[in-house]
Amino acid sequence: MDEETEIKCYHGTTKENQESIQIEGFKESKPKKGHWLGRGVYFYRNIYYAIEWNIINYIKKGDSYESFTIKSAIIKATLNLEKFELLDLNEPIGYSYYLEIIEIIKEKFPEKIKKIERNGDIEIIRLLEEIEEKTNEKYISMFDILIAEYPKDIYNKGNKNIKGNFLPCIQEQICVKNNDVISKIETINLKDKAIKSYFDII
Fold first, then answer.
1. Burial tier of 117 (Cβ tally within 10 Å: 0-12, 13-18, 19+)
2. Which of 37, 93, 118, 190 is most buried, by CB atoms within 10 Å?
3. Tens digits of residue pLDDT in 140-173
C-alpha cells in the first residue's frame, strides 16, 4: 500500500475567526484543556468532531440548527505530508519513539517523574515542549505534525476489545506545528444535508 501523501481534516471555529483565517492564516494556539499535543493548530480527521466542538464551545445548549449555521464555521484543510516530519502516536514506530523519549526525560529530569505519572499522556507533550524551551534540546519540535487517537469517554469499552470487538467513536486529533504543512483550506457549507445530520446526532 502506498504511503499517504496528504490528509484531509477539519477545524471548528467561529464565523469571525473564519474570516481572519482566510486572510491571515491559522494562528498557533497555546496548550489548554483538551490540547494534549501541545502548541499548534488543531484539526479533527472526522468532521463530526469539529461540529461537536463548535456546539460545545460556541453555541448554547438548545440552540437551533439555524443558530449553529450563523455562529459557527468549519474549515476543511489539506495537509501535505511529503516534505514534512510526522509523528503518528497511533502507529507502533511513532508510539515506540514516544515511549523512548519519556524514559530519557525521566532519566535526565527525575524531578518530572511525579508529574508524568500523575497526569499521564495529557501532559507529556506540553512537558516536552516546556523542557525544550529551557534546554534547547529537541524532542517534539523536530516534528511538523502530531497525530493521536482518543476513545470518546461516552463509551465505556473497558477491556472488552481483547475478544476482538470494534472500538466505537475513536477521535483522531491532528496538531499542526508548522503551518507550511497546510496546502489548502476550504469553508464547509453548514447548510448541507450531511452537516444537518451530524448536528441532529449531537
1. exposed
2. 37
3. 889 999 999 987 654 344 555 556 667 777 889 9
Does the pLDDT at position 120 exceed 80?
no
Max mean pLDDT range (7-21, 49-63, 147-161): 7-21
d(CA 69, CA 3): 36
> What are residue 175's DSSP bridge partners?
42, 146
Check: CB of residue 55 under 8 Å from CB of residue 202.
yes
Cβ contact 105:97 at 8 Å? no
Phi, psi of 185 (to 5 degrees): -130, 145
**42 strand-pairing partners:** 175
Write b or e for each residue in 154-165: b if 16 or more Cβ atoms lie within 10 A of its Cβ, otherwise e.
Answer: eeeeeeeeeeee
Q: Which helix (H) or strand (E) holds 55?
A: helix 47-58
